[in-house]
């Protein structure tokens, strides 16, 4: 089974492209969605221990956690050390389930795929990209987002240019939805005969 890593910076359109893969019969595991589950489950006591007061009523209090991280940015490493292994466990379960179904391919949607060297655990890297002005307009249209917050987020992410350079395939979402769909179709067609090795090597 082919393991496809889907990534891209904030505001590039990863969720829309992930939905296109799903519509074409390729299952997707969304790392952000898994984090949301963990923040209401297994990660709660671990985060409370590492960031006292950052949880309430059995849930991670995201504003409090964000405030703790802003006050001490070194906390990002502690948080990643808690969350990343739990997310990888969920991804492994997902891949095993898809392999058991006989799936030809499965997608891991991981915003920080390249930042965490996750590209070493997939067969193919698909980067979702768009022009910088389109990206900024999309993100700044989100509730509570400011230019300062966006710049802070972008500083913690690998640049779009580097992501594009490290991609096996690029989906440019700066155009129409139909153009994005055509790019996804072209990628799936190109992967029909691609040899898979990542699942057996990294996920069994």
**How do the helices and strands follow one another from N- to C-terminus?**
EHEHHEEHHEEHHHEHH
Number of helices, where a helix is a run of at least 4 consecutive DSSP H or I residues: 10
Number-wise, the strands total 7
Could you describe the largest sheet, including whether it forms a barrel?
5 strands, parallel
In the predicted model, the low-confidence regions spanning at least 5 consecutive residues are none
In CATH's first tier, which class of the largest domain applies?
A: Alpha Beta
Determine the mean pLDDT. Answer: 95
Explained architecture:
The chain is an alpha/beta fold and 204 residues long. It has two domains: 1-27 and 103-190, P-loop containing nucleotide triphosphate hydrolases (Rossmann fold); 32-90. The chain contains ten helices and seven strands. β3 (55-56) and β4 form a beta hairpin. The radius of gyration is 18 Å and the shape is globular. The termini are close together. The model has no long low-confidence stretch (mean pLDDT 95).
């Amino acid at each position: 089974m082919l393991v496809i890593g889907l990534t891209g910076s904030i505001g590039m359109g990863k969720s829309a492209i992930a939905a296109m893969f799903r519509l074409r019969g390729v299952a997707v595991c969304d790392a952000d969605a898994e984090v949301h589950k963990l923040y209401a489950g297994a990660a709660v006591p671990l985060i409370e221990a590492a960031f006292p007061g950052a949880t309430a009523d059995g849930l991670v209090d995201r504003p409090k956690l964000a405030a703790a991280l802003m006050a001490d940015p070194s906390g990002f490493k502690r948080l990643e050390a808690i969350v990343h292994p739990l997310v990888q466990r969920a991804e492994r379960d997902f891949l095993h389930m898809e392999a058991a179904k006989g799936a030809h391919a499965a997608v891991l949607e991981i915003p920080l795929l390249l930042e965490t060297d996750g590209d070493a655990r997939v067969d193919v890297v698909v980067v979702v990209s768009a022009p910088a002005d389109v990206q900024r307009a999309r993100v700044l249209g989100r509730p509570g987002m400011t230019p300062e917050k966006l710049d802070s987020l972008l500083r913690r992410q690998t640049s779009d240019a580097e992501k594009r350079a490290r991609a096996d395939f690029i989906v440019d979402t700066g155009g129409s939805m139909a153009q994005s769909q055509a790019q996804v179709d072209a990628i799936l067609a190109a992967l029909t005969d691609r040899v898979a090795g990542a699942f057996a090597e990294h996920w069994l």
